């Protein structure tokens, strides 16, 4: 009798076992690891945010459908939703084993066996969630071919950048349907950049030529490290930043966690689409193109030509300069984290392992989301790949789009 009671208690304890961390945060981290690994090798800016939005959307759908079940059930449902969403995005690649490994690694900690009634139900819940999102996004425009024709080789007009593709990245991204039913993305379009004839333009040119060069003698060591620190994919970086701020506070609150990560990544995706709309509306050239031009083109007569000029961050991304999408993503992420945090003040320390120039690990502490977003933006100037005037409008655009996404999220999130 005692043995029977012992095994009954053991079975109950096993049934209630669950992963001790935040399962949603785990899958957001795995999502980044899988896209940045050697198989995929990263994605362009809007597709990288689109991808994580799909995964977190599937996770939130699974969390909502399983919210009345045990923690282990919710974790298992969320895990299969994330796995299948990742596989759907990358079907046809060799990423299957890597995605399977991410799922296999967390299953023992969740502890809900796949052959039990609850296990089978949770798995089916996750699979249905991923399918729902995949069907919703199958015709969103991300796969459409949109051609691009370079403008005349006049000062200020975007041209092919050294080391870049003959054509700019994903011009179709500006037409992709936004997440959460946000609607026409063009209504957020930023005002145009300054004209070449304006004083602000020449000041920006002179500044970045000195500050953004690989061999700059005026850029401070801190600013050089800022360029390196913020160099990684914005989507990966800001999700890592958010994970430091949120920590393990939502580990047992799967629905709350899933909602936060979906809000963050829906906002990031929408901000990416909005930024691309601005870029392709104005098609502004990159700094490297301006300096490699051999004639005198500034109205003042100042000669800034230097065909040997190389930016610190290289190669220059092959899409137009204005606005800075890096800044846009930062503005969007800061807005969502700020809304969750209940204010701008934080205490977040995190590191970036910089492989460029063998810089190594850089660790920084941030106490303000606004300051972090601004430093993220300025890093692209110190890296030599964005004019100064591309930064703050990008932050403002991201902030506006993120707040608009949050406003419609509860009503429209399941429109994906």
From TrEMBL:
Residues 262-413 form the Phosphatidic acid phosphatase type 2/haloperoxidase domain. The lineage of its organism: Eukaryota, Fungi, Dikarya, Ascomycota, Pezizomycotina. Gene3D superfamilies: 1.10.606.20. Keywords: Signal. InterPro entries: PAP2/HPO, PAP2/HPO_sf, V-haloperoxidase. PANTHER family: PEROXIDASE-RELATED (PTHR34599), PHOSPHATIDIC ACID PHOSPHATASE TYPE 2_HALOPEROXIDASE DOMAIN-CONTAINING PROTEIN (PTHR34599:SF1). CDD domains: PAP2_haloperoxidase. It comes from Cercophora newfieldiana. It comes from the Eukaryota. Coiled coil: none annotated. This is Phosphatidic acid phosphatase type 2/haloperoxidase. Residues 1-17 form the signal peptide.
